[in-house]
Design brief:
The complex is a heterotrimer of chains A (118), B (1041) and C (229). Chain A is mostly helical and 118 residues long. Chain A is built from three helices and no strands. Chain A has one domain (2-53, 67-112): Helix Hairpins (Orthogonal Bundle), CATH 1.10.287.3510. In chain B, 63% of the residues are buried. The chains are: A mainly alpha (118), B mainly alpha (1041), C mainly alpha (229). Chains B and C meet through helix 1, helix 5, helix 6, helix 7 and helix 9 of B and helix 1, helix 2, helix 5 and helix 8 of C.
């Protein structure tokens, strides 16, 4: 199971990179970043998994005394939460830039924004 | 002590609390933010103070658990220093951006505050994921600040920035999460201890973390986005990115590198050196000010990265080196970006606007010199220790890379400085002075001197006298608005005081230093006297002239190579400013500076290698070197020969000397060139006795001979009187090099006599010709002529000068010639000797041309009423003539002590004295007798001429040259125009500007490489992302192979 | 042609990722770090039933502070950089069904949001999730009633107060507790109950409010510059 998740995560990361590096439309590039981030999140969750265990919430099904042997790793799960929120902030800001770029040149083609070079 | 964690409380709490302040009270919001940053700075500053005065570092644990269970932060000396730096530049940067922040409103103010807070945290945190979070905080805040002044370009730059950092952050996160998987901890210290690089996957995880951090430091070539940000964002923001962010991210790499294995140091060293060289190379072609600063910033970060990577070779010097260079970069780059924002000129040529407020020019110059690593700035000491340490470790490639990169940076920075000093600014607008923008720059300008002086006191081997006399310079600058006579008197008194302190006693103890001190300081006083001839204020002249003389004095006083190099660089800086003062001196100033920097780096490398051999920096220890002599001797000799302008390294001299002001030419010719001679002598005294040095000496001898010949030939074909004298100097220095290279008693006697003579007559000739030029307003000899009647004083002076120079009896030049032939025969350098002899004959050509075309022949109509040279020039000239006369009449007064001196190193086997009668192996000579004889003959001939000339018929001057037709260029008919056309036809090929062409071709290559290379930065953000990914892959594949 | 180059790059990237995959062997045991969090005596020190929340709010609370800061930054940047662009927009007419349904749904969604962040220490969820749900109620409101007066000041104050409470509680931890972000400054309560885990529910509630306010603000800013053509 975790191997599948990891493989999928890696493939999604590479798909995101593909979009970032080949799409010409800025919105699509931003979507590429979201895909890239999602891939990272999948990988993180995959790394947290422990075979046959349950979520790290100590309710009726998970006895407090034996929690060590019943739950998956809570740390990557906490990290992924943080990473998701960060990804959200980044995406929001990128969209602001996209909007401003579009206002400037009435296009979203990344190739038309080369005023700064050399 | 307040816990450093409250930097976060204040920064973040402050940002949240600002939401309560009325949106309309914008100034209040901004001021409150500054208070918050000041509080953060107080916390970090108090920790810095505490730790500097012996306190212990503190680890801050959060949540009541120890790491790795919770996040911890460290406040050690490094952290305290860096957070203080960040908060300080944040405070000043906030003041600088006050207007922009106020206009953008409270949200922008919050972003600014969070930006500074985030940088503090990434410096302090010891947790890898926490580092990721706050790196993201900083990068989002940076993107926000880029939008602060919104232009089309800044939005584009911001988006490219977000794309690049988006990838980098993703890679970092991937690395961190796998590092956690393989090690079970997120704590940086645990990760370092876990050594997960032993397994393949762990090695990849570590690579991802480190390569992401390297990418945050904008490595070449994956840094196009960073250049765009530097160019397009508000200069106030760019200053923070360059100073504060770079400081923080550098430290992150500094602390995290320990998680990698030893290979990582090499990778980072190489990445850094490629960045330093590549970025500075591309910068050469750049003419947009802020983008150029971007190139420079990126380059400096590369240097810092290289220093970190070279850690295994730097040992305990690492932190000193890194901090001095980092601090210099931090102060200089923030200052430069801030200046860019004040003057608002995009093209570097328009930076001439700085001269509207000369204090800005001073600040600009300060920052430029600090970046290159001149004394007294901290980077000077950093570079010194760096090269010494690398030499000791045998890292020669690293030395070469670092020096080449610095040199390339010097090219564009000094070209830029030259533009600012020389180009026309009258068409440029006034500078708008906003005090909140000026004060931060001024504070950084002062700080860089203060910190430099402090660093100096931390160096062992640096005498306090090394910076004491330098205090003259700010003083002279402070009184720069006074009139010339007052300042001139103060300057002369300054030099005289120094001379009075140094000279007495030196005569008995150290003859060599006595002679050179005499030339430098007494020569300095004499040439300064000519300054009284100038009217008005002559702004900026005195501080830089004194700078050069202080440098010269320091060279003499130096007892170790550090002091020597310190003085050498001070002298270079001073003479650069003197030379560039000339009207058309901009290109010559630049080429002088570039040759000087290259020479200084050769010296630095040589001193470094010699330190590695001994290991000591005492000059006397040079003689203890037993291996690597060839390379050390060659490097040092090349370094000194850039100042003596030996053939190949001479192309800066003619322009620099010819275009300089009338009293500056003798300073830089008669006096400054002797610094190179002094250096060569010091070198040969210490190392000349080894067989390797003798071999190099043989080469130097040939070089000297050819220099003498080519210099004289070139002088003969000049139309410009000062250029003629300049080439003559090249040739004379060739003689001296030749004589020194013989490394024998007579050779050195010759060299010393030539040095003294050259000082005397070249000062006379340059002063006189300079004074004439001041009167007639042209350098060109064919525009002069017949001035003998108007300028008898000048005529007599030139007459005596050329007699002395040509080496005919009775004047002192003959002493040199006589010794010279004895010496040549003694060491049996017949071929070379013949060349020098031949070039001596050529000297007559140009000397004749000089006196004939200027003073004899027909007087030009427009010069009918010129007056004789200024009395203020005549005084030093005739004082020097008196010197020549004494030397000529009583040569033994000088030669006997010289002989004793030289005997210390080369025992006298050839020359014996009997009163005034010198007997050499190939003849004898009595200076006094010759003088009297020639005097009598001269008087007799003069009397006879006067007698017969009574009968002479005076011919009126009239013009029948052109038979009814005026030639297109009338000057071509002047007798002295192309005077030696015949010789030119026969021998001109010898002086064809092959060497100039060589250097021009080199320059063209550098420019072409820069031109084609920089097209890598296509401007497309997507392409930049591709570079970033490719860079990661390149590092990965380098790592596995 | 260029794409072939990029395919090569992506493939090489895959090659770079492969060692990670190769050395990945799943987990049979918790790491030493995770075991620490799951051990009874340590769980009782924090007293949060949801261990992820314990990690997020307490052990790695500084990350969360940074995380909150990022949303705050994004909202602030969007606010100051979009202000210049305000445009008049055409107000759509929404159907009655949509409006009425919204009136019913909005309070419910908000309640769910509040529930999620208040129970963050007991059940899956927390401040960020709850805040996001709150914001979804706000966007529904903005869509259903585009001309409703949006009190951005209220949201800004909520944001500021919540942020200050978070930072304040964190600092109190450093001053009177055993460290920054120590949750034991408030009574730890009985394990598994609403009022347990010390400061965690308080912090998470304010995080929820803050996130909700920030996201709402972002959405409102975006909405205010959007034009329908």
């Amino acid at each position: 199971m975790e191997y599948v998740a990891l493989t999928v995560g890696f493939i999604v990361i590479m798909a995101g990179l593909w979009a970032i590096m080949t799409r010409k439309n800025i919105i699509r590039i931003i979507i590429g970043f979201s895909i890239f981030d999602t891939g990272l999140h999948i990988v993180m969750v995959a790394l947290a998994y422990v075979k046959g265990r349950t979520a790290p919430i100590l309710d009726n099904t998970v006895a407090l005394d034996d929690a060590v042997n019943l739950i998956v790793d809570p740390v990557p799960q906490a990290l992924v939460l943080t990473a998701i929120v960060i990804g959200l902030g980044v995406t929001a800001l990128m969209l602001i830039f996209a909007m401003k770029l579009h206002r400037e040149k009435k296009t979203l083609d990344i190739r038309s924004f080369k005023d700064l070079k050399w | 002590m307040i816990s450093p964690i409250h930097i976060i409380t204040i920064g973040l709490g402050g940002a949240f609390a600002l939401g309560f302040v009325s949106k309309k009270a914008k100034a209040l919001t901004t001021s409150l933010m500054l208070v918050a940053i000041a509080l953060m700075g107080t916390i970090s500053g108090s920790w810095l103070f505490e730790l500097l005065s012996g306190g212990t570092e503190t680890m801050v644990y959060t949540a009541g658990f120890k790491p790795p269970y919770s996040i911890n932060l460290l406040m050690g000396l490094n952290e305290a220093l860096l957070t203080t730096m960040i908060n300080f530049v944040g405070l000043l940067g906030g003041i600088y951006l006050f207007g922009n922040l106020k206009k953008a409103g409270s949200h922008a103010v919050m972003v600014f505050l969070v930006f500074i807070m985030g940088l503090n945290v990434i410096v302090m945190t010891r947790d890898a994921f926490n580092l990721f979070v706050f790196m993201e905080v900083v990068s989002i805040a940076t993107a926000g600040l880029i939008l602060l002044t919104e232009t089309g370009k800044s939005v584009q730059a911001g988006f490219k920035y977000m794309m690049a950092t988006g990838i980098v952050a993703g890679i970092f996160l991937l690395g961190v999460i796998f590092a956690y998987y393989f090690s079970g901890s997120l704590n940086i210290d645990d990760l370092a201890a876990a050594n997960i690089t032993a397994i393949k996957g762990g090695a990849v995880a570590v690579m991802m973390i480190l390569v992401a951090l390297v990418l945050e430091l904008k490595p070449f070539p994956a840094n196009g986005w960073a250049l765009d940000v530097y160019e397009a964002s508000d200069p106030g923001v760019a200053a923070l990115i360059s100073a504060a962010s770079a400081t923080a991210f550098y430290y992150v790499l500094f602390k995290v590198i320990s998680i990698g294995n030893a290979d990582w140091y090499n990778i980072i060293a190489i990445a850094g050196m490629i960045t330093f060289v590549g970025s500075n190379l591309f910068g050469v072609k750049q003419d947009k000010a802020r983008r150029l600063l971007g190139y420079s910033s990126v380059g400096q970060l590369g240097l810092l990265m290289a220093i970190l990577g070279l850690k295994p070779y730097l040992g305990d010097k690492l932190e000193f080196i890194a901090i001095t260079i980092l601090v210099s970069h931090y102060l200089a780059k923030a200052g430069l970006f801030w200046l860019a924002g004040i003057i608002e000129q995009e093209n570097i040529k328009d930076w001439a606007i700085l001269r509207r407020k000369p204090i800005f020019l001073v600040l600009f110059g300060t920052f430029v010199f600090a970046l290159i690593g001149f004394p007294p700035f901290p980077s000077f000491y950093g570079k010194w220790e760096l090269i010494l340490a690398l030499s000791s470790a045998g890292q020669y490639y690293a030395i070469a890379f670092i020096l080449i990169g610095s040199f390339l940076e010097g090219i564009y920075l000094f070209r830029w400085l030259g533009y600012a000093i020389k180009l026309d600014y009258t068409k440029l607008p006034e500078i708008k002075i906003e005090w909140n923008k000026v004060i931060p720059v001024a504070i950084f300008g002062v700080l860089i001197y203060v910190i430099g002086a402090y660093t100096g006191t931390q160096m062992s081997g640096l005498d306090s006298l090394c910076y004491g006399p330098l205090l003259m310079i700010p003083f002279l600058y402070a009184i720069d608005s006074l009139k010339v006579p007052i300042k001139n008197t103060i300057a002369i008194l300054g030099v005289a005081t120094f001379a009075a302190r140094v000279l007495p006693g030196l005569y008995e103890t150290d003859m060599l230093r006595f002679i050179f001190t005499f030339i430098f300081l007494v020569g300095g006083i004499l040439t300064l006297i000519a300054g009284y001839a100038y009217k008005g204020k002559r702004e900026g002249f005195y501080p830089v002239a004194l700078l050069m003389f202080v440098g010269l004095a320091l060279i003499i006083r130096a007892s170790n190579t550090l002091e020597f190099f310190y003085g050498w660089e001070i002298m270079t800086a001073g003479s650069y400013f003197l030379i560039i003062r000339g009207k058309k001196s901009m290109p010559h100033g630049l080429s002088y500076m570039l040759f000087s920097i290259a020479g200084a780096y050769a010296l630095l490398a040589g001193f470094g290698l010699s330190f590695a051999e001994t290991p000591s920096i005492e000059i006397s220890s040079l003689s203890a070197i037993t291996s690597n002599i060839t390379i050390i001797f060659s490097l040092l000799a090349i370094g000194f020969m850039t100042k003596t302008a030996s053939l190949g390294l001479h192309i800066w001299l003619p322009g620099a000397h010819a275009e300089a002001e009338s009293d500056v030419s003798p300073m830089v010719s008669a006096i400054l060139l002797k610094a190179g001679v002094f250096g060569l002598m010091i070198l040969m005294i210490a190392m000349g006795h080894s067989p390797e040095a003798t071999n190099i000496g043989y080469v130097l001898g040939w070089l000297g001979a050819i220099t003498a010949l080519v210099g004289n030939l070139a002088a003969a074909f000049q139309e410009d009187a000062k250029r003629l004298l300049a080439y003559s100097s090249i040739s004379q220095l060739g003689y001296i090099l030749f004589a020194l290279a013989m490394m024998s008693h007579l050779g050195w006697m010759t060299a010393m006599v030539y040095s003294i003579n050259h000082f005397l007559y070249k000062a006379i000739l340059f002063l006189t010709i300079g004074a004439v030029v001041m009167r007639v307003g042209t350098h060109y000899m064919y525009k002069m002529g017949g001035l003998i009647k108007n300028m008898p004083m000048a005529f007599v002076a030139v007459m005596i000068g050329i007699i002395a120079l040509s080496g005919v009896p009775p004047l002192s030049g003959f002493a040199g010639k006589w010794l010279f032939y004895n010496a040549v025969l003694d060491v049996q350098w017949y071929f070379q000797g013949a060349i020098v002899f031949f070039s001596g004959i050529i000297a007559f050509l140009y000397l004749f041309k000089l006196i004939y075309s200027v003073f004899l022949g027909q007087l030009k109509d427009n010069l009918r009423h010129v007056k004789d040279i200024s009395i203020w020039f005549a005084i030093p000239i005739y004082t020097l003539i008196l010197g020549i006369m004494i030397f000529s009449a009583k040569p033994e007064w000088v030669l006997q002590p010289l002989g004793d001196m030289v005997s210390q190193w080369y025992p006298n086997s050839a020359l014996s004295w009997d009163g005034g009668l010198a007997t050499g192996p190939y003849g004898y000579w009595n200076g006094t007798g010759v003088m009297i004889t020639v005097g009598i003959m001269f008087m007799a001939l003069l009397g006879w001429l006067l007698l017969v000339s009574r009968k002479a018929v005076k011919v009126k001057q009239f013009n029948i040259v052109y038979s009814a037709e005026a030639p297109q260029r009338p000057e071509t008919t002047h007798v002295s125009y192309n005077m030696f056309a015949g010789y030119n036809k026969a021998l001109g090929w010898l002086v064809a500007p092959k060497i100039t062409e060589f250097w021009d071709t080199m320059t063209d290559w550098v420019h072409s490489v820069a031109h084609y290379g920089r097209q890598l930065y296509s401007g497309n953000g997507q392409v930049y992302v591709t570079y970033v990914v490719a860079y990661i892959l390149a590092i990965y594949f380098t790592m596995i192979f | 042609m260029k794409n072939i180059f990029i395919i090569i790059i992506i493939a090489a990237f895959g090659v770079m990722l492969y060692p990670l995959f190769e050395d990945f062997s799943g987990n049979d045991e918790l790491s030493e770090l995770a075991s620490f969090y799951a051990q009874k005596e340590n769980v009782e020190k924090v007293n949060s039933a949801n261990l992820v929340t314990a990690v997020v709010v307490t052990y790695r609370g500084l990350d969360t502070l940074g995380e909150v800061t990022i949303l705050f930054l994004a909202a602030a940047i969007i606010a100051f950089s979009l202000r210049k662009h305000s445009v008049e927009r055409d107000l759509r007419r929404n159907s009655e069904i949509f409006k009425t349904a919204s009136k019913v749904l909005i309070p419910i969604i908000m309640m769910v949001g509040v529930y999620i962040f208040m129970n963050g220490h007991l059940s899956p969820g927390g401040g960020f999730q709850g805040g996001a749900v709150l914001a979804s109620a706000v966007i529904l409101m903005l869509l259903a009633f585009p001309n409703i007066p949006f009190n951005s000041k209220l949201f800004a104050y909520t944001e500021s107060i919540s942020g200050l409470v978070f930072v304040g509680l964190a600092a109190i931890g450093a001053l009177i507790g055993s460290g920054y972000l120590d949750n034991a400054i408030l009574p730890l309560g009985t394990f598994g109950e609403l009022l347990s885990a010390g400061a965690i529910p308080v912090i998470y509630s304010f995080v929820g409010l803050k996130v909700g306010a920030e996201l709402s603000n972002i959405l409102n800013e975006f909405q205010s510059v959007q034009s329908d053509n």
